[in-house]
């Protein structure tokens, strides 16, 4: 029987930080250390000011306040933490490879591999290594091969490898971790499985724990994300049909969601899915299918990504068309830059491609977001309009922390993220400062059409067939 007294989690990101905070809260007898090579990130996790945590997640600061310094610590001392740990979670990033074999299709495993090498070298006694990062199927074998290679093996050192994919959704991560639909543990070492199972039993009922072999666990994670993404592409494809035929996507979603076999979740049409997982995981699935010669399967899943990109392109083209085919010298207010509400994460946000295209047409963007910082937007959008081919000695976008200032002298507004604040905009106040004619583009279907049209604004809502 393995007794778990100390846990090390490598990677203090959107997954590692919140996950370990909830572990620490529910397992006061286990000492948990989250380690990361990024000193700035660790400093932010250790900040006294809880609004400065690197991850914005509702409910997280309250938990951090309770457990940090008690049984949860954040540090850059990776080696020390691995050495002392009975269980090590790997929660480092696994972006899509940019170069070489599988570029643009499969995950770059260099960080997972370096973690495995470091664990293999440094760990002492028996260590259970748990893959938390979403990984291509069979990555656990790579980790095993490294851990069990003879170089560092001694009689006092041994390992078990488990897969325990994370299903949390950003913005609701704490609730998802506290009350998950299920917890999946993949592996073949019964004692290691029991050790992880017992940790979860501190707050999760046994019937929610599912056990499979390693490959099924890895593939289940990819498949869950692929299915969720596929629902979004499906409903988004129907949104385009609604617009040209006079139906309303909100009604269609509601009507089909009432069928228990379909269910009502993940049926909101919008500017397409973003986030660090969906696209990457489908690409991994496509790569896997192609590798095994299953070209039809690969083609099927690739379409889900294509529809997603098309939806973003389609929205930008509609904006251009409505604004008389010309965006030069026009100011557009952009409401929302995060990939969804209640997170400060911008990875793969639909706002990135839509904004780039608008800037390319010559528009000046005034961008507001509840939690994303100007610095983060700058990583995705260049400020210099020369880069976009416009010969003006002035920036092509600005960050506007004041929502109403973003509207001043604007020709249009595009809602890209459904932050609550945008649902309660004072449109009368807006009407005093914008240009006329003024367009409102609602890609998240959060506005009341009548309210807007009564003020004389032009209104376009995604998937709404009676747009003017
Ligand atoms: C990541 C993956 O993107 C996702 O596929 C997986 O499911 C979980 O882990 P996330 O936590 O959102 O998700 O990533 P990110 O916020 O980028 O955090 C990863 C952290 O790992 C970074 O802070 C990075 O500095 C750290 N890291 C990376 C290490 O500490 N060591 C390394 O060798 C590499
Ligand atoms: C997702 C999975 O939900 C989670 O289980 C997994 O662990 C990681 O990937 P996340 O990317 O954080 O989580 O957020 P999610 O709520 O799934 O939203 C993903 C994207 O889909 C967002 O851009 C969101 O706006 C979009 N979306 C979601 C829709 O457009 N319509 C919907 O109905 C739901």
TrEMBL record:
Pathway: Nucleotide-sugar biosynthesis; UDP-alpha-D-glucuronate biosynthesis; UDP-alpha-D-glucuronate from UDP-alpha-D-glucose: step 1/1. Keywords: NAD, Oxidoreductase. Residues 333-449 form the UDP-glucose/GDP-mannose dehydrogenase C-terminal domain. GO terms for molecular function: NAD binding; UDP-glucose 6-dehydrogenase activity. GO terms for biological process: polysaccharide biosynthetic process; UDP-glucuronate biosynthetic process. NAD(+) binds at residues 36, 41, 94, 134, 170, 280, 347. The active site is at residue 277. Substrate binds at residues 167-170, 221, 266-270, 274, 340. SMART domains: UDPG_MGDP_dh_C. It comes from the Bacteria. It catalyses: UDP-alpha-D-glucose + 2 NAD(+) + H2O = UDP-alpha-D-glucuronate + 2 NADH + 3 H(+). It is an enzyme of class 1 (oxidoreductase). Catalyzes the conversion of UDP-glucose into UDP-glucuronate, one of the precursors of teichuronic acid. This is UDP-glucose 6-dehydrogenase. The gene is ugd.
